[in-house]
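Appendix B, example 12.
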Amino acid sequence: MLYIIIAVLIFGILVATHELGHFASAKLLGVKVNEFAVGMGPALLKWGKGETQYSLRALPIGGFCAMEGEDDDSADPRSFGRAAWWKKIIILCAGAAMNFVTGVVIMAVLYAPAAGFRAEFYGGPLEGYGTEDCGLLAGDRFLAVDGHRVLVYGNARFFLDRAGETIDFVVERDGQRVELKDVHLPYQERTDAQGNFTRLRGLTMASMADPTTFLGKLGYAWNTCIDFVRVVWISLGDIVTGAVGLRDLSGPVGIVNMMGEVGSQAPSLLDAAWNLGYLAALIAVNLAVMNLLPLPALDGGRVFFLVLNGILYGLFRRKLDARYEGYVHLAGLALLMCLMLAVTLSDVGKLFGR
């Protein structure tokens, strides 16, 4: 139960951090903020400073940044609606940027004690698979597999598993960068001596730890979060192609439950903290990417309409009626709520084994 509570708090903090990005950028760019709240629901504590009211609310599930003229027309010259288009884009994107930075900071903290990071190497061919002359040499360090950069440990194996029969590699060999094009490495199905079915490409992977520095740890934290972004895009692609279905998606209920399980199943408190921190960073980056998708009701959708109106004004000296944009966002919000409800029901069903 303790880890469930911690998971709820982490999720709430990440959402509040997103709103902090909007708040800080709005203040920096001179847009009036009426209220900034941490938490949702009834206010436990309120205080005012300057033109902005601050509040701490009862439910630790996020927060909000209420800007003047954000959702309606305001005559205030410092309202969001009357701000320059570039200021609006910065403010809208700042929430996602803050989530991404939060993910980098979390990973930098988790990596702080590390003496080094493991790198993936080609270990050599498997006997009997005919891959001895594939072009790879034992000791080659993978830099890119099938057009994807190897950013962190595990990337080479991941993209090798997803690749087709022919694969492009970029490796480091004796300190030199070597490109290998169209390496033929199809999966080969076998049955081993114990009668177990295998499906392998006929090569082995090896790893070695490289020592690191303070800057190296920061760079690896950054690469980890960039890899998170890549994983989110790959997952979105799998959703579009139908490779994953509704039951493979998780909403807040599923995420909190997963974080609770990860924490409670860890062998020690230190391991639990590390695992929860890693998941928190992944979720923070996930929130950043998802929020910038050009979909109605999301920040990315609002940026899309800003860009669209800019194009229309440049071509025809006209903009879309704000009412119609509002209708689109309202419809998008309704669809998003329906999707969240469906995913939540699916998460609850998983909890009860249905």
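Residues 322-351 form the longest helix (30 residues). The beta strands are 33-49, 52-67, 116-125, 141-145, 148-149, 166-173, 176-184, 188-191, 197-200, 203-211.
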